[in-house]
Specification:
Layout: H1 2-27, H2 32-66, H3 69-81, H4 91-96, H5 101-115, H6 120-131, H7 135-146, H8 154-177
Length: 181
């Protein structure tokens, strides 16, 4: 019942956003298509400026995975996290998601391939991937795009938000999907 209500609300929310935002623009007499095209042009210019930051992040994530450090951390933390509903297999996603969305999708694909999409581990990984942000990527992109180098408060706030997202993912996955199966 609870799961069906959440799915219904999610479907309506997507439809409302897809129709509501352009409709709101039309009501406010905004040239929606022209605004979209202008934003796309600006986005392309930003993408060109942030390439060095992206390469740096991807290199760090690749080195961390290739060194085996991620597997070591997962093996060390797994026995404690499993007690609170967080399987050890999901720990690499927690480590990688704040760094790189692409790497996080790779970890998610590995989890789904290994445990299956209908397992508790797979469902939890899907929820985690959807409710957290690629913090360092976002800071590199946005701060790099505007040339900001001082983001002292943004990083701790974003990491706290990530921790809250991961915690909420575990709590709601336990509530909606039950424990590990």
């Amino acid at each position: 019942m609870f799961q069906q209500a959440i799915q219904t609300a999610a479907h309506w929310a997507i439809a409302l956003f897809a129709v509501g935002i352009p409709l709101y623009g039309v009501v406010k007499k905004v040239k929606v298509y022209e605004a979209f095209v202008e934003g796309a042009k600006e986005g392309f210019n930003v993408a060109v400026r942030i390439i060095p930051y992206l390469v740096a992040i991807l290199a760090v994530v690749g080195a961390f995975r290739a060194s085996g450090a991620m597997d070591l951390v997962s093996a060390w933390l797994g026995p404690w996290t499993e007690r609170v509903g967080l399987p050890a297999a999901n720990i690499p996603l927690i480590i990688v998601k704040p760094l790189s969305g692409g790497a996080a999708r790779g970890v998610l694909a590995d989890i789904l391939r290994t445990f299956g999409p209908d397992s508790y581990t797979g469902r939890l990984a899907s929820v985690m991937a959807g409710c957290t942000e690629t913090t360092f990527y976002v800071l590199a992109v946005y701060c790099g795009a505007i040339g900001a180098s001082k983001f002292r408060h943004a990083l701790p706030a974003a990491l706290i938000a990530d921790a809250a997202g991961f915690t909420a993912a575990v709590v709601f996955s336990l509530l909606v999907f039950g424990g590990s199966r």
